[in-house]
Amino acid sequence: MxxxxxxxxxxxxxxxxxxxxxxxxxGLAWWPKPITVQTFGAREQPLSVExxxxxxxxxxxxxxxxxxxxxxxxxIELEPGDAVVADTPLTELxxxxxxxxxxxxxxxxxxxxxxxxxQVQQAEALLGSNRDLRERSEQMFADRLIPERDxxxxxxxxxxxxxxxxxxxxxxxxAQANAAWDAQGNGRTLALRAPISGVVLKRYHESxxxxxxxxxxxxxxxxxxxxxxxxxxxxxAAGINVGARAQIEAWGGPPIPAEVSRVEPLGELKISxxxxxxxxxxxILALKxxxxxxxxxYQVDARVTVLDLPNVLVVPLEALQRDGADWRVWTVKDDRAxxxxxxxxxxxxxYRQILxxxxxxxxxxxxPPATLVSGDRVAMGP
Length: 382
Hints:
Blueprint: H1 7-30, E1 35-41, E2 43-59, E3 63-66, E4 71-73, E5 83-84, E6 89-94, H2 103-142, H3 148-184, E7 190-193, E8 198-203, E9 209-211, E10 216-221, E11 226-233, H4 234-237, E12 245-249, E13 256-271, E14 277-287, E15 299-316, E16 321-323, E17 326-333, E18 336-347, E19 351-356, E20 363-366, E21 378-380
Parallel strand pairs: 1-21
Antiparallel strand pairs: 1-20, 2-11, 2-15, 3-10, 4-6, 4-9, 5-8, 6-7, 8-10, 11-14, 12-13, 12-15, 13-14, 15-19, 16-17, 17-18, 18-19
Pfam family, one: YknX_C
Protein name: Efflux transporter periplasmic adaptor subunit
GO molecular function, one term: efflux transmembrane transporter activity
């Protein structure tokens, strides 16, 4: 049996259907839309924490040539960059006037020679002790009894002893020159000789003329034996260990591998460019590769690795939010945003270590909106 609707009934049903469609469209328009978000799957990867600060390159062993006594200096023909050979003459000093020998001055000069000779013997003994310690430490490291950083520190101490011995020998030669000068007293000139084979780095005095005792004349060194000096904030230097891996950058050439050889124990007060007082600590780095174009006094950036974690769970820094004194991330479950408290560890400026609260592969929201609340519908962005 087919029911035939009258015109009035058909109009009523059509109006009712139109009303339902309009209501449905209004409902869809006002229905909360899901928030478009970007996600990141928590993953395991290596994490390195680094500290970067400015520094400069310097010759590891500098030798300052000074006038041992007052006299008339000959013109210094050497220029910066000129090579010198150990024990060859650099310049000459002639007496200002002929004066009779002073027994007291002669005795003082001979005493200075004796003191300098004792310093040489002390430096030789210290070097021998550090050399024996280095040999024993190498054997202990080979037997896996000490870590590599301890061996690195012992080797640095041996190199420092070698430098002290070289400085003591130079002081002895200067004291002997003073004694010889006092013993001459007859107008003969005194030749100032190079204590090492190297290069003239700086010429303090060029013209001939009278100079006082102790006047700086030349600075010598080996430009192939460089080290890096960087000044880190004391709170950053506290986390830097001897033997730490490093890299020298921003000097005008490719990055140079390096290693921390010494962290000085003293923090010095410095004023930053903004006028802020800071405590800075000098960190000395040894180059691990030759750098022919790097020179004495060149400015560099020193990047030191203070923590190297081989495989840890991480998320981007943009995925983390403060939750009072704690941290949290937002995860997605059934297309709904859910906050999850987490415990965090180290960060490298891009990623942060997650100690607890997440599983590998669990998606987290990156840059979640500040208005996001638990249970909001979310949709993955393109």
